[in-house]
Amino acid sequence: YAQDLIDLSLDTAMSFFGFGQSAELDIVISDAETRRTAEHKTEDGKKDKYLVFYDGETVSGKVTVTLKTPGKRLEHYGIKLEFVGQIELYYDRGNRHEFVSLVKDLAHAGELSCSQTFDFEFAHVEKPYESYTGQNVKLRYFLRATLGRRLNDITKENEIVVHTLCTYPELNSSLKMEVGIEDCLHIEFEYNKSKYHLKDVIVGKIYFLLVRIKIKHMEIDIIKRETTGSGPSVYHENDTIAKYEIMDGAPVRGESIPIRLFLAGYELAPTMKDINKKFSVRYYLNLVLIDEEERRYFKQQEITLWRKGDIVKRSMSQQATIAAQRFEGSRAANSSAKEDSS
Q: What is d(CA 20, CA 1) in angstroms, rounded to the nearest whole number?
């Protein structure tokens, strides 16, 4: 009740001194109806759809100032529009780190007697990093319109999502690792490559060379590790993105188990290393074995995830078949080369 009285008194005073007029701001991006959209997680865990932009693309559109009381003038100290790229660390919310900050002055100080629309264009804007919302950090891009006033400014924000595209890695060797416990367990596992795009398929095989303990369960996890801060103030957050059961039951010596894990069904962002010296996001394949006494054995291997453009669209089954054929072909070639050398 007390706050209502304060607000009422403020409105009365503003009207008495000629500041009673107010306005609403609206930002409309030029190709909003035809531009691609993507779902992006917000800080509270919900998902919203945003327009997608890429590095170097122009951002243009219109800012509309709509007066709430027709016929009544609105005095202002200027109207501007900003394009901002910003990193916010949740443990340091007082400081927002802006790595992109562009400003367009739409109108000088003066009066508005009617609603008005202003065109804007930020040509070939640099957008070096992917939009990201994590457990301890948020990287976002947004347009912010501001109408300056004596007592309180009127502002409006319009957020966009930026995707960073990469070319296909030329050097993409297979991953080969071993897990062993002396005289008890010896496992060799191999993945077809170490770098995967976000819609890719992980293809591999696991070979049991020695099994003298009773394994009852085996799975592969995709783990996202988010690192924020630096020096003594470094925070690590591990999040298990995916669990893929390889087998349920005891393997025998000489057995081989194929792996085929589709990435498209999971919420993944590209690998991000030392972004603006504020945070990193890395991914690991984690092989987990559990024996009958509930002891856990695991081996981690880092992989690189990257985003590519939608140039060729293939079904998931086609992607898996092609990946498996390439993997088997490379294995056969390596085996033949070893035989020839021997």
A: 22
